[in-house]
Amino acid sequence: MKKTVLIIRWVVGILFIFSGLIKANDTLGLSYKMQEFFEAWGMQSFNGLTFGLAFLMNLFEIILGIAMIVGFGMELFSWLILLLIIFFAFLTGYAALSGKFRSCGCFGDCLPLSPVQSFTKDIVLMILVIIIFFNRKKVQPLFKRKIISISVIILGIVIATAFQCHTLRHLPLFDCLPYKKGNYLLQQMKVPPGAIPDSSVVTFKYKKNNKIIEFDAMHFPADFDSTYQYINRYDKLIRKGTATPAISDFALLTLSGTDTTQEILQQQNKYILVLAKDFQNWKFRKTDFDNMVKVAKKNNLPIFVASPEATNAKSLFPQNITLLNLDAVVEKTAARCNPTYFLLEGDHILEKKSYTDIDAFTKELNEK
What we know:
By secondary structure, the protein is of the alpha/beta class.
């Protein structure tokens, strides 16, 4: 049994470390997923806490995973990991039963799992964690000296914290979003080949005896007659398909409201697209930005700045920079840093950099 528990500890530990690290690769992505759950529960007031919760959750998962492997503090950590997996199972179970989520974010955007897959995974993990829990007193630490186990856990915390801080400043190390470097945006905006369309049925709504009755063409009431008062008809979704493009809401609008998405993405020349959440901190990077503008002008590269607050930024940029409006949800999906710089040729993303790396981006403008 000891060998079995040891193997289970390693499996559970590695899975928790992997799960924590892959979400630490995109802490903001987990934060946005938490907001989806809060919005589904009508708890939008907690949205301001999601970033801190996501950061700490990633650390917590990694700490628990390391503790399982080194076998340190099992009386405490076995309780914590059991409570955490129960909580995860509740979330994924809710997501699977409610049908409100396409994925749960268990492994971030790099390994998207459906709610049902996530719930199944958590049930299996719960069984393994329960086995560890009931054998926690028999676990022998990997290291004989406590100081080594504590040092390993502290090292894990330091590495995980540094990793999250790095990705928050320099964009995710592994970009798994449809706006990643190398992708063609117009291709990402198409329905993938072999996709299954939504399945729906025409549903009729009638009123009889002050009661609303709904039915489809195959289930007309046996007593249907003139006493049924027609209200309306609609398409009722009975099975969600997969006919959804990776990018479905990307639109670049002029300040007057004209959609210029296709015009910009279908141009043949190279250009710079800057996505910004807001401009409150823009002045702190103005020198670097002005230098980038000079290099872009030298290389005949047009510059477009897209933001949900573009209308309020007219005074910040010279007239040779085109300001565009962009949906706030699209901006935070495409650009994890504020601002994020893209170099494109038509719809092809040649380069993508965080504001922190604007010097490297500017240097590459002469090389592309």
